[in-house]
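Q: My labmate handed me this sequence with no annotations at all. I'd like to see what the chain might look like in three dimensions before we decide whether it's worth expressing. Could you predict it?
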Amino acid sequence: MADGGWIKLYRSIRSNWIWANGNERYAKWWMDLIMMVNHEPRKVLVNGNLITIGVGQRLTSIKKLSETWGASRNTVDKFLRLLVEDKMIEVQKSRTSGTSIKVLNYADYQTFSPEKSKRSEQGVEHQPEQRSEQRSEHKQEPKELLKNLEKEKEKKSLSSLGRGDLVKFWENNGFGMISSKTREDLMYWVDDFKKIGSSEEQAIAIVQKALDISVDNNVRRYNYANSILQNWESKKLTSVEAIKALEIKRQQDKQQHAIGRNMESQVYHNQGDVSDDELPF
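A: Here is what I predict for the chain of 281 residues:
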C-alpha cells in the first residue's frame, strides 16, 4: 500500500448507501480499501509461491482488516459481502493464500494521464492551464457517471445470481441460520470452481445446484452438499449444463446396464425351458 499519491472521489458518493447516516465507518473503510489496493501490479511471495497482485487488488485477510479497522471479523465480513452484492468489489478466498479483494472499476478512482503526472512532478500543478483541465474534468463527471451506471446495469443483467443468493437459499430452504464458517466454505467452493474454469455466475450456480439436490433428497446438511461438490470438482465440471449432461449419460448407462442384465436373465430362463425333443441328441 502506497503512502503517497492520491485517488479521485466523486461527490456522487454522498448519494450512495455507504454514506448514509449511521454508516460513517463504512464510508471510511471503503475509502481505505480504495487507497489500500495496488495502483500498479506487484509480485509477492505467498507460501513459497510467487504470485502477481494486479491493479486494484489487495491480498489480505479478514483478521488483518478487523485489526486495522478495530471491528469484529463478522462485522468486516458483513461489510465485504455488502460491497460484493452491490458489485463494488470481488472477493476470492483461498485456504493457502488468504483473501484477495478487487475493487471493481478501479480506474474511476485512479486514472490520470502521463502528461498531467509529469506536470505534477515538476511542481506546476497550480498553473492556469492545469486549473482549466481540472474544471473540464469536473464538467465531464456526470457523463462518466452515466457510463459507469450503464456498465453496472449491463453487468447485473448478465448475472442472475450473486454470492449473497447462496446464503438466502440456505436460510430459506430449511438448512437453518447459516454460520460464518459454512458461509465461508460456500464462498471457498465458488472460488475453487472458478479456478478450474467456471465463471463467477457458473460457480455460484453449481454450488446452489448442490444445495438444491440436498433439499430434494431431504438431507439438509453441509457435509452432504460438500461431498456432491467434491465429486463434481474431481470430474472438472464447470457448469450446471455439464452436470446435467453427466447425469443424463449416467441414467442412460444405467438403463443400458439394466437392459443387458434383463436380456441375460431371459436367455438363462429360456435355456431352462428347452424340451427333450429340442436337444441335439
